[in-house]
From TrEMBL:
Catalytic activity, as annotated: O-acetyl-L-serine + hydrogen sulfide = L-cysteine + acetate
Presence of the UniProt keyword Transferase in the record: yes
Pathway participation: Amino-acid biosynthesis; L-cysteine biosynthesis; L-cysteine from L-serine: step 2/2
Protein name in UniProt: cysteine synthase
CDD domains: CBS_like (cd01561)
Length: 290
């Protein structure tokens, strides 16, 4: 028995069977929507807040601030409420209404600004003022360390060490960095595949950052290959996943799955794991499933 924080992690692997015909290639979705706040970001949010508290950087009187496209903010709002912390989240105005309402339900203050880059600048300015503590998921090693501690080991355990390819969307890049570090330590031959949007695409949770905003935690040597994903392909695969496999997840998951299928069609045998980042119900006010 324990509180809700103790339910973070140990999410299931689900085999995806209806999209390819080669029996020697297995594709699994790591179902991160099963985390209590609904996404893979629960792991990083917990590790960032808990580690900062353990180091004495924050306490009950600290005002936290963070820029987010959604999932990290929801996760931080849940963790902050459990620790009794004040939290302001800064999000692009284009974010779905479900995201804002969920953050507010947990007790966070939400500020909406024009773009993600503007949100990041705003949060960093407030953090620099000394009145707020910015967690800064884009530069915080505790982001990727969460996946060295939990996500990577779970995937290795649940595939019985048979994983050959790991596929993940790249936003803050924490998930792919941490999982790569852990999995490559177990078997350096595992291929790490990242997903980024094509130049014209807008895919929540996957970013093609301008150089000046590239996450500081990102190390390109930890990624063997990057696949560009179109908005149309990410949307189509998200819809196909829920209708053919019952996997209800967002557009970034659709993008990762599209990349996983591309890899599956290129190899003769292997075990591919992709991150199903979140739950699809936080996109219902958008046209993703329309």
């Amino acid at each position: 028995m324990g509180n809700i924080i103790q339910t973070i992690g140990n999410t299931p692997l689900v085999e995806i069977r209806s999209f390819h015909t080669n029996p020697k290639v297995k594709i699994y979705a790591k179902m991160e929507g099963n985390n209590p706040a609904g996404s893979v970001k629960d792991r990083a949010a917990l590790n960032m807040i808990r580690s900062a508290m353990e180091r004495g950087e924050i306490d009950k009187d600290t005002k936290l601030i963070e820029a987010t496209s959604g999932n990290t903010g929801i996760a931080l709002a849940m963790i902050a409420c459990m620790y009794g912390l004040s939290l302001e989240l800064v999000m692009p105005i284009t974010s779905t209404r479900e995201r804002t309402l969920t953050m507010e339900a947990y007790g966070a203050k939400v500020t909406l600004l024009e773009t993600m880059e503007i949100c990041r600048d705003y949060a960093e300015e407030k953090g620099a003022s000394g009145d707020y503590f910015i967690l800064n998921q884009f530069a915080n090693p505790d982001n990727y360390k969460a996946h060295i501690k939990s996500t990577g080991p779970e995937i290795w355990r649940d595939t019985e060490g048979q994983i050959t390819h790991f596929v993940s969307a790249m936003g803050t890049t924490g998930t792919i960095m941490g999982c790569s570090m852990y999995l490559k330590e177990q078997n350096p031959n595992i291929q790490i595949v990242g997903c980024q949007p094509t130049e014209e695409a807008s895919i929540p949770g996957i970013r093609r950052w301008p150089q000046e905003y590239l996450p500081k935690i990102f190390n390109p040597t930890h990624v063997d290959r990057v696949i560009d994903i179109s908005q149309q392909d990410a949307t189509a695969k998200a819809r196909a996943l829920v209708r053919q496999e019952g996997v209800f997840a967002g557009m970034s998951t659709g993008g990762a799955f599209h990349a996983a299928l591309q890899v599956a069609n290129e190899i003769e045998e292997g075990v591919i794991v992709f991150i199903a980042c979140d739950r699809g119900d936080r996109y219902l006010s958008s046209d993703l499933f329309g």
